[in-house]
Structures are given as structure tokens and as C-alpha cells.
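Q: Okay, next protein. This is Glycosyltransferase from Rhynchospora pubera. I've checked the sequence twice, so it should be correct. Can you predict the 3D structure?
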Amino acid sequence: MSNDYLHILVFPWLAFGHMLPFLELSKSLAKRGHRITYVSTPRNIQRLRQIQPNLSPLIQFLSFPLPSIKHLPEAAEDTREIPIEKVGYLKKAFDGLEAPFSAFLKSACADKSTRLDWVIIDFAPHWVPKIAQDHGVPCTFFSVFAATTKVFMGPCSELIGGSRKSPKDFTVPPSWIPFPSNLALRPHEARFIPYFYAKNESDTTDAERLATVISQSKFISIKSSYSHDSKWLSLLTKLYEKEVVPVGLLPPSTDKSPTKKSTTALGEVDVIDWLDQQPAESVLYIAFGSEAALSIELLHELALGIEMSKVRFIWALRKPTCVSEDTRILPEGFEERTKDTGVVTGWVPQMKVLAHASVGGHLTHCGWSSVVENFQFGHPLVQLPICNDQGLNDRILEEKMIGVVVPRDDETGDFTREDVAKVVRILMEEEEGKVIRHNAKQLQEIFANRASNEKHIDDFVEKLRKFKQDV
């Protein structure tokens, strides 16, 4: 392997489900001696995980303040801080970074010591490839979603003026999948599809952004691995008509810092101490990531189903941004009634919780990063997808029989407490869930294989070097 070190700029979209995988990729590249310039906004950079001392000299954070936009709260710099109907305004503000980014790139490329070798971009900064091309810097689009999701959305010709016109068209597997598959959206999931193809306040559709960065990238990089996704990666290469390079699953390292106490309605608790007191594989971990949120009505139904199951649990529950401060997000008296079997708190050290011997299952929204983190430890899933790619991930997980799906009304997405209690007990306690628990443990061999992930990064670096030489 060559020892020529690269200077790489990474530029994620303003959502933590995007920024964190970009950071993990940055750290993996910095571990190999490459210099990284990580672009984001001031508050996001402050909130990103601290970099290990041995890597901090190689990862420079470049801060671009967002321009002020009418209807966008002044302090809002990521999607968690705004209701979904205002995300278009965030994209409009994000597009305001085009001019300062262009000025930075021009200055950096004028000096040999700071010149960039590559730009790794997300779907949102669709104006970056043209700017980079003007300075002779190649780009690769890095997808934080699984290959299955990208296959489902189709080639660039489908993203721009494609054959699927209505939400109903997305409730069946697309015609370009040549093998049997259940990869399709439920009607209650598909009703959000038109937003992807419609112009928002930024005057650009998400489909246009994605098609632009795919078509103008030298090759496509993706958070995936051959051992998990080989047939989907091969199909994606055909659809995009350019090379698709998996960078590995990028599992974050287990946090070794001291655990701080978590605040609950009944006082402070050290969740690791609490887990230490529970029997092995008896606790269900419940979390929906940084952005996915159920309605208050469904949150109450979920809570009552958890209570009805009588299973031990830890629930990392954030108040949705769209509800007022005084809104009760859990049923009256829930925490008092379940105090002997569960803990509800706004924050937990997720990797430490998943790694704990007392945890035996995970109730999840099926976000790709959460799935990757979970299967490092081989936990079976209770599957409750909410938005974005989660329904598609849910179909694949269901097909692999590594989780139990909460039954829902196809049209409304509603579910009942009785069904929640039933699937939780199946997963955690009953004979019916034994095969699922076994399959999840088997999958750990792929997701926890650090050597395989390191090999994917090494191959990715060699690809960056090869393409740079060919430019």
C-alpha cells in the first residue's frame, strides 16, 4: 500500500444521522495518516463527539455560519431542532454556504500545502461537485443509507422524471430488482414520498440534489459491506453505471469514558449500575435515534404496551421538537408504575448500554446507523420504523428473521398496546422468538468483524489514490 497521504474534505448534511457517519469515516481515514477537513456549522461542530488526542492533529473542523433565513429559528443548525415542515428552510440556509465554500476551496487550492485531493459529499450540497471540478478536485458521494435504500430509489433517470408518479407506485418492489424481494413501502410510509420529489423552500428537490451528486461523482461510496450487501451493491453499480465502493459499516468505538448519571422523572440514576443489577439478557433497550418521533398518541400506546409486557426496559426518550414543553409525552403515572422494572431518561450512553450483558433486545426505529450499532452485539429487534429509510430497512430485517415487527394498520400506521406487549414478549421470553434470537447472534459475526471493516477502509483509500492519479 502506498504511503502517500491525502488531504480530504468531508461535507455532510445538517442531520446527526449524517454528520456522525461522516465523522466515523473521517476518523478511520485519519487513523491511516490522511488529513481531514470536516465542514459544518458552528453549533454542530461543538456538539460532535470529541476526537481522540492522537487523531485531533489530522482532523480540522471548518465552520461556516448559516445565513439568517426567514421562518427558520435563529439557533437552528440541524434537523433535530426544527419541525419537519421547516426542513426546507434549513436546506435554503444550507445552500447559502455555496459562496463561502467556493471562496475557501479557491484559497485552499492556490497553495500546494493546503490543496485538497478529494471531496466527500452528502446528497445536500449538490453545488459542490461543480465548484470542485473548477479547481481540479474530484468528488465522491458518500451514502449513509444502506445499499437497499439506494436501489429502491433507483438510477438518476428515475430520480428525475421517473416512471413512479404516485405513492401507490412505491408500495411494490421496483421493476429493476431482478430477484425476489419484499423491498417496498407500506401505504402509511409511502404517503411521504412526494416530499422527496417536490420543490421545497430551497427551490430544489431532494431527488434533484441526489441525482446531481451521483452523476457528478467519480464513484459512489457507501456505508455498507460486501459480506452483508453484496447482491445489492452489485445491482446498485449497474443502476448508477459507475463503481460503488463500500467503506465498511463504520461502527463507532465503545465509549470508555466514565458514565454520567441520567435524569429521570423519579430522580437521577446511573443506567449502567441499574443494568448491573438485572439478570442476563433480560432488558429491552428502547430508542428511536436522534430524529424519528412518534405522535403523542402512539407514544402513549407504546408505553402502555411496554408496561403490559412486564419486561424490564431502558428507554432513551427525547421530547419531540414539535410538542410544547408542558405536553406530557408518557401516560399519567407510567414511570411510577414501572419504576421496579424500567428506566426512562432523555439520554443514555448507547454503546455501553448495547454492550451490557443484561440487554437482550432492542426496540428500534430501524435507522441504518442504529441497526449497525445494535448488531455489533447481536441483539434481536422489535421493529417499529417511523420515517425516511426505516421502513425499507424493516423489510430487509424482517426477511432475514432477525426481529419481530410491531403489527400496524397499513393506511394509518397505528398500532395497539396489545400487539406491542405480544411482540415484546415473543422477542424477549417466548419459545417463538428463539430462532430470531439465534439469527441475530449469527449476524454479529458480520457487524462486529473489525478486520473486515478495516479492509474496506483500506480498499477505499486505494480507490481514492487510483482515481486521483487518473484525474
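A: Here is a summary of the prediction. The longest strand covers residues 35-40. The chain has a mean pLDDT of 93.
Q: Noted. On to the next one.
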